[in-house]
Fold this protein.
Amino acid sequence: MTALEQAIDLIVRLTRGEKAQLVRDIVSQLDDSFPGIDSQPGVCGGEPCIVRTRIPVWLLVQTRRLGASEAELLQAYPTLRAQDLVEAWAYWHAHTDEIEQQIKANEAA
């Protein structure tokens, strides 16, 4: 029996909640689990940004905290799409410490 077949055999025995947790864990381990977010050393200091833009995730998170609505963000940044914000919030939730450090570093600058 292959490893995949063994895994499938085990998955069948999991409860619905355990399967949901397994899916979340697997997705969080994928390198491209946030296809709308990109980090490149030469762009915005390597901070995670919305693809096609130079808008860092930390900036969107901080602007939202300061009271901007999603509609206001989309209006202020015409290159953004609603899906970009969804991915930014998901990235933030998965990488909270990283984003919080970037917010602090940019506030101090």
Residues 34-108 form a domain with the Arc Repressor Mutant, subunit A fold (CATH 1.10.10.10). The first strand starts at residue 37 and ends at 38. The chain has a mean pLDDT of 90.
